[in-house]
Fold:
Amino acid sequence: MPEKKGLWQTEYINTDYGQTYRLKRKIVSEKSPYQKIELVETFEFGKMLLLDGAVQTSEKDEFIYHEMLVHPALLTHPKPNRVLIIGGGDGGALRRVLEHPVEEAILVEMDQKVVELSKVYLSSISNYAFDNKRATIIIDDGFSFLKREKKKFDLIIVDSTDPVGKATVLFSKDFYQLAFSSLNEEGMIVTQSGSVFYQLDEVRQTFFNLKKIFPYAYVYLASVPTYPGSLWSFTLGSKLHLPPLIPLSVKKERMIKRKIKTRYYNLEVDLAAFALPTFLKEALGETNSS
Ligand code: SAM
Structure:
């Protein structure tokens, strides 16, 4: 058993469980008007961003989360031109969206400090996506922005913190109603929807709220080592296209044409991601589709 010497950072998931990381160094710890922002360097996962003590992303496993948040929906859409990302201040989702031939990717992040610190310390995650000429970075609340925005989107990606505080509204029926009216007729929304193991109610709530507004709603999964319980959920609402029913040959053609390079996502993983464990299917009322 490795010695527990040195500096450790623990993320407390609940009163009885936490995940702890041995640190090389603490880089930044400051309070923005919205949250406590910490950047640390861990031995196991490289540099890591925490907000109010919750791990948001790490250099070592960010590719899993960001590829699975973005590619299933983007490859389902035949011609994604205008994409909105709400949250995502670390730039990882923006980087993957820009790998697709989108004309415009708008990132609306409420906390300027998260973007500033991510640009300086987490460029290995954003890969300088913030400087891409097709990217527009707006510092604002995602809900307020969408209420004002007149032009429609092909995709809306919610890469926010969990539904607490300012992020709560992004998991509400009202927000999904607004998103529905802000999407073109082939539009989709995908949101991170929390830990299947420790936040099952959040997964259920998100799925049922989306299902009330969108004709098709799906939950799909990926294992993200630094997220509580690893098994992480994404919830997708669609106006027209059904991701699991798009032929793999079509998605493969789009991957090749768009030159999408991945380390976790592939077509078999995409298909398997929508296959849910029994306890989750039961929690979702067995209807993980339309
Ligand atoms: N991958 C992480 C996850 O799954 O939890 C999310 C990372 S990203 C850094 C989360 C961002 O959402 C934070 O920077 C936070 O400031 C932002 N956020 C939370 N609520 C928001 C809102 N209502 N509008 C815009 N950004 C918001």
In short: The chain has two domains: 7-55, 62-283. The domain at 7-55 is CATH 2.30.140.10 (Spermidine Synthase; Chain: A, domain 2). Residues 62-76 form the longest helix (15 residues). The two ends are 48 Å apart (CA to CA).
